[in-house]
Amino acid sequence: MDSVKPSSMTPKKGRLARKVAKVLHRRAATGIAPVDGVHKVKSQEQFKDDNKIGNKSTISLGQSFDISNDDDSQKRLAMEAFLAKLFASISSVKAAYAQLQYAQSPYDVDGIQAADQLVVSELKNLSELKRCYTKKQFDDHSTETTLLMAEVQEQKSFSKTYEIMGKKLESELRLKDSEIIYLGEKLEESNRLNRLLEKRLNQSGQLSMPVNLHRSGLSPSHFLAVVRFTVKSIRSFVKLMIDQMKAADWNLDAAADSIVQDVFYWRDDDKCFAFESFVCREMFSSFHLPNFSVPSQSLTWGKNQQQHFFRRFIELKSVKAKEYLAENPKSTFARFCMAKYLQLIHPHMETSFFGNLSQRNLVKSGEFPDTSFFAAFAEMAKRVWLLHCLAFSFEPEASIFQVRRGCRFSEIYMECVSEDALLLSENAPEADPPVAFTVVPGFRIGKTIIQCQVYLSQIQHKVNR
């Protein structure tokens, strides 16, 4: 038996396998499926009916799903619209409240009423929104329009709030500018008052008479120091005299008016300057004369006049007036004290002060009272006397001057004692008050001017009817 060659059998089997696979593939494509070894073919009608049934079920499920999604979307949009209206209303309340605050400063009645009505209206809108939310009454229609309108309303409220804040900041800025100007003026005024106080402190502080002084070394600065020393003593005596007047129930207004008539005083305390003016006027009377109100004073000094007055100055400057008068009751200075006391202290004044004229009678008899009042007077008289002696120690001698009533103020020759008058003249230069009266006289030594002290005030003219 012949053997079979593998090469001759393999191609036939391969072709057969390919044909079987092709047939099976075609049957599967035409719907033929084997069941229990038997292949059944589904008809085209049945296939179409199955497709229709499948499509119907698919369409019904999709439609129900879309309806559910639409309901949720509508509810979500309605809630978004509600929240937008809520926040827009809150922004309106904030804007109305900001307007209410702005109208309160500065106080604006109409603005406050309008802002209050607006706040109430917006609060009512919030209350209505709360009611709608509680009852689930949302506006499902035109949600897009509602959202846009709420956005517009909120932006308008923001703009209004920022506008009011801007106005408030501008108002605060203007207020700060006004405060800066006011504080600048106060600072300038304080600096000016400090300069005045410093000047007064230098004049009325602890003063001492010049020491180790020689006539050849005399200068205007020495004379100025003695002037300040003298003015301080005069003011101390004036204060004592006013205290005595108050104790004696004097009418200080009438007393001041009897010294200088028709003067407007910036302050009640300024009336003390009238009494100071009176004391200076009496004490410096005849200051320009060598004998200085001393009766029967010899004038035989000749060329040694300056040296003579300088010796008097040195002799008395370091001694207390009371002690000097007790040791030298017949001296020129003692006669000067007698004359000035009788000239300055009127009998009616002394009687009202002390109830009698015992001090005056003692002075007339050449004796000196041992009282604090006379001791203060003697100390003041001593310093005026020393100033006179020093004035005639210069070559040429120092001269005295005062300013007439109604003159215009000049810083070269005058110094103002009323601070309020200086404030008025600085704030309104066209309304500079004139000189009402001279308080302390001024002095001239060669080309050096020592200012006189004056009181500036508007002079009142009484109308006679």
TrEMBL record:
Cross-referenced Pfam families: DUF641, GIL1_IRKI_C
Domain of life: Eukaryota
Protein name per the record: Uncharacterized protein
Coiled-coil region: none
Signal peptide coordinates: none
A GO BP entry: negative gravitropism
Domain DUF641: 75-200
Sequence ranges assigned to domain GIL1/IRKI C-terminal in this UniProt record: 400-455
